[in-house]
Structure formats: structure tokens, C-alpha cells
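Why this split exists: single-chain examples teach little about how molecules sit against one another. For that reason, every record in the complexes split bundles all components of an assembly together and asks for one structure covering all of them. Below is a record exactly as it appears in the raw files.
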Amino acid sequence: MTAKRLRLGILIGVSGLFLLAWIFPILWSLLNAFKTEQDVLAYPPKLVFSPTLDAFRDVLFGATSILPNLASSFIISIGTTIVTMALAIPAAYALARLRIPGKRWAGFYVLATQMLPPVGIIIPYFLILRNIGWIDTYQGIILIYLSFSLPFAIWLLVSYFEDIPFEMEEAAFLDGASRLKTLRRIILPQVQGGVAVTVVFVFLNAWNEFLFAVVLSGNTVRPVTIAMFNFVSVEQTLWAKLAAVSALAMLPVIVLGVVAQKHIVKGLTVGAVKGGGRR
Amino acid sequence: MNKSAVAGVVAQGRRALHRRADPARIMEGRERRFAAALLAPAFLALMATTTFPLLFLIWTSFYRMNLSMPFMDGFAGLDNYRELLADPRFWQSLGVSLVYTASTVVLQVVIGLALAVLVHGMRRGQGLFRMVAILPVVLSPAVVGMVWRSFMLAPDFGVVDYLAVTAGLGSHNWLGDPTLALVSVIVIHTWQWTPFAFMVLLASLAALPDDIYEAARIDRASAWQSFRRITLPLLRPAIVMVIIMRTMVALTAFAAIFTVTGGGPGTATEILNLYAYRKSFTELSIGYGSALAVALLVFTLVVSGVLFALRRAK
């Protein structure tokens, strides 16, 4: 019995250690955002300190406010989500439900576009956008974000559309409803969950994207992930402010992650287990 | 009548109904036009944002193109590729990419699987693990890199350094030493993405049928035996899928390394992706950078070919 107890203790210890390893870096940087510059640099690292909101006040309302950058991140992410969903929902419906020639080929094309390395897309895109003057514009960055959000959204949505029983659609046809009406009234309410999952993923990916943003951003379009470098320089890094900016950049996605936790796990599993079994 | 016979009759009846009542057959032409209208915008956007840039990239890879010296631009034939094959920095970055990808994927799958089995056996506390595991996954790799670089790995006040000193390992320049820097970026990637493997594998474990384990218990199989003989084979499709998805992401990893080391010290952590970026946008040598990106694409295709063959095998 003691051996069993011991094993249980070790298991709990090991899993607890991993739990700590995942949560600690996030908590630690959040804590640092409430410190003074001196407290951040304290050695040994300070777990107990008198918290202050100075860093947050400075990065939000100081000389180099990141409020415009947070706004920039939101405009990019929401814009990308809207355009992506408007294009992906009809396409996914057609791929999943309609009998069309070349369907397999189209599905393969969507999958294959996901394999393109982003650096291979940004080089030509930079040249093109530079020629038409779209660098540092929202339309330019949202357009290129479609290159990764659109294939992903179509691919995820198709698996949800495929789950709806055909009988429901047939019943609607027999009642004389048109294709478009069936799509709106019968199909879309059924895939609400799938649409929500896709929206969450597209938003997260757009918020977190970095390579395209670092090449295409400028003074107008400058998401917070790029702007945080303002606080890092060779001469002096403003540690507490950097922690505050990181916290502000993390806040929306953490809130989204916790609120939509079930959706995210489901989305990951659909991709890995179901999509994997089918194609 | 047994069950399958009943199912057969039902299916037959359904097919008959289908033939008679299927309205899509009557409106086949209309359906095709409808489908085309639904598909056209998305596929046009896809072609404009993926296929067209790809073709343009291949085209520029045959050109001498330098943004700082536009007067030198011109057709170069295979020059960029000849330069690439003789470029030691290219081969080195390819090697770093291989090491980075292989080690992060193996670590993610091994740790993620072990933890998934561990947590799956828990009667309480699974929710807590799911909640915590979601956090690293939703974060921006750039922010994750910044957090690690600034507050975990900094040599003077970082927590990792403090722990190393406390454990008697001494203080190290975690991002300044070539080997340690590579280990650091591998650990950071593993830290961020192991929860992904964990969550997917935990969900797959939960979907496995209980009765097989019941039978194994009755046969007095050990925990290890039932893991080897039951869990692993049943989980194989999910594991292979996780490997494929994680490999694709590791091959295109960029932000975390960019923020943590910028590819340095020297080129110690410069994966091929980062080299192509630096060549194109720091050294402004777009033509050669394009050739590097094409090489990365070829490398990705080869790796995914191998992985998909692995999936089909058995």
C-alpha cells in the first residue's frame, strides 16, 4: 500500500511540476508589470514587493503610448476575421455539400497552400505592395493575412459542414426552399459552433502573426507585437514597461483562450483526429 | 433477422428514396453555377495570396535583385542557386533547421504523450491542466520570446539563471553561448507548443473505448503492457497527425527566435527561414533571398512527403 502511495505522490509531484513550468513564465512577466524598474532588476528575484501601476500608466498614457498599437492589432485581427469568414463560409459549404467536378483537387489545393513557407510569400508580396504603395496600410496586411487564415478556415469549416445530415437539407428542398435559403435557414444555424471555433482561431492567428507584420508595418500600421520592441534598445531596456506591454499584448488572447477553451480544444482535435482520419 | 441485414435494408430504402426525390439531380446545372459562385471569391483570393506570390518568388529567384543597388538588377539564370549550393551559411542554417525541427517535435510529442497519459488517469484536476495548457498555445510567439528573453533567461536577474546558480550550476550566458542559445530556443518552442500535443492527445485518449482496457485488466496486463499494446497502436493516427502539424509549424518558426536571439550569436540559431529573411530584408538581397525561400519550400515538401508516407504506412 505504501508503494502505491509513493507512486501516486511522485505522479502528482511530476504533473504539478509541469503545471508550474507552464504557468510560471506567464505569471512572472505579469508580476513584473506591477514592479518598479529597480524591483524587476532585484537579485535574487523578488516574489514579494509593493505593487505599482506606474508601468501600465506610462505605456498607456505616457509619451510612447501603445494605445494606437493596440488599436492597430484589433483593426488587423477583426478585419482579417471578417474578410476570411465572408470568403470561407460559402467556399467550405460548396466543398462539403455540393456535387461539383474537381472537388478532390480543390480540397487538395486548399491543403497544399497551407504548406507554403511564409517567408516565401512575404518576399514577392513586399515587392508587389511596394509598387502599388500598399506598404504600411491595413488593406495590404489584411490581404496577405488571407494567405494563412483562408486555407485554415476553409479546411476547418468543411469538417463541420460535412457533419450535418443530408436529410435535413433534402427535407428543406422538398418543401420548395432554394439553395441559398437552405444554406441560410437550415445549414448555418447547424454550424454555428464550427463558425465560432473558426472565428476564434483566425482572430488568434492574426493577433499573433509576426513575420508579415514586421516587414509590412510602419508608422500607420504597427501592431503591439511589433511596438513592444520600442522598449528594448542596446543602451537601455525599460523592463517594467516591457512587462506591461507584454501583459497588454497577452491579455486579449488569454481572455479569448479561457472563454473559448472548449472551442479551442475541439478545433485542435477536429484538425488532428477527424481531418486526419478522413483525408 | 440480424442487425447488419436490417441496416442493409434501411440503406437500400434510403437509396431508393434518394433516387426518386433528389432535387439536386434535377437542378444539376443550377447547382454547378451556384457552387462556382460560392467558390470563386475564396479561390481567387487564395490564388492571389498564395499561388501568384509563389510563381513570382520563383521568378525573382532567377534574378539578381538588390534593393540597395537597383542599377545592378538583371537576369541571373541559375546564378543564385549556384551561389546557394556553395554557401556554407546556407548549409549551416539547413542543419540548424533540421536540429531545431527534429528536437522540438520529438520533445513535444514525448512530453505531451507522457503527460496526457498521466492526466488521463487522474480522477480530479483534469480541468485545471486543460485550463493551464491553453495559455501558452494562444500567446504570440513574439511575446513569448520577449518574456523568456527578458525575465527568464537574462543573465543578471533572470529566473532560470537564479535557479541554475541556486542549484550549483553557476551563472551562464544563456543566449550568448552558441550551444546554450540553440538549447534555449529549442526549450522555448517546446515550452510553448507541448500543451498543443498534450491537449490533442488527451482528447484522443478520452475517445478510446474503455472495454479494451477492461479486458486487459482481466488478463492481468501491467500498466506498461496495456500502454505498449493498446494505447500506442490506437493512438498512432493521432500521434502521426500531431507530428505532421508540429513539424510544419516548427519549419516555419520565426518570431520566437527572432525576438530571443535574432539568429545569433553569429549564426548559431539561424534557421533557414530566418536566413532567408535576413538576406532579403536586412541585407536587401532579394534575388538570393528568394532562392533561399525556394530552397526552404523544397525542404518543406521533402519533409512533408516523408511524413505523409509515414502516415500511409500500415
